[in-house]
Amino acid sequence: MKKAILGGGCFWCLDAAYSQLKGVERVTSGYCGGRTADPDYRQVCSGDSGHVEVVEISFDPSLIDYATLLQVFFAVHDPTTPNRQGHDVGSQYASVIFYLDDGQRAAAAAIMRELEQDQVFDAPIVTRVEPAARFYPAESYHQNYYAQNQQQNYCQLVISPKLAKIRRKFAALLRN
């Protein structure tokens, strides 16, 4: 089993997207990249801890590779807006890839170069690529949030459209 740590706005969105994919064994919402030990949601949302909302993805590389996880990452959020995803604004919503080894760093750089060359986005990619710091799991009520709260407005208005996009663009990767 391998791991990936990605931040692309609200961790609820990424959790819901990656939980649908074959080869993804577990998705854990959490915090990474800050300076406060054992941060909680309030500290992260205040911007004082320096952490980013992320997901830690445990995946089977024989079923889904890291590059494919990154392709989904760039499809499910806007990597051109610093510290913002839609109405979610703040440093905790940064677009960031926390790499765990040189292979992940190289894969991130290659995919970002390709996206820029192909002019996939109307603005430059601002996604940060940084070595992974300690990952802190978020509180239990953040785990598997969409699956437990699909009727909430945020889930309906923000997450559901992202999931529909994933189902259209990456149908072959979805669990049966």
Explain this structure.
Pfam families: PMSR. This is Peptide methionine sulfoxide reductase MsrA. This protein is an alpha+beta fold and 176 residues long. The chain has one domain (2-173): 2-Layer Sandwich (Peptide Methionine Sulfoxide Reductase, Chain A). 35% of the residues lie in helices and 23% in strands. It has helices spanning 11-18, 41-46, 66-76, 102-117, 145-148, 153-169; strands at residues 2-8, 24-32, 52-59, 84-85, 88-89, 95-99, 128-131, 135-137. The strands form two sheets. The protein has a six-stranded mixed sheet with strand order 7-6-1-3-2-8, with helices on one face. A two-stranded antiparallel ribbon has the order 4-5. α1 (11-18) crosses α3, α1 (11-18) crosses α6 and α3 (66-76) packs across α4. The longest helix is centred in the C-terminal third of the chain and has 17 residues, at 153-169. It is globular, with a radius of gyration of 15 Å. 39% of the residues are buried.
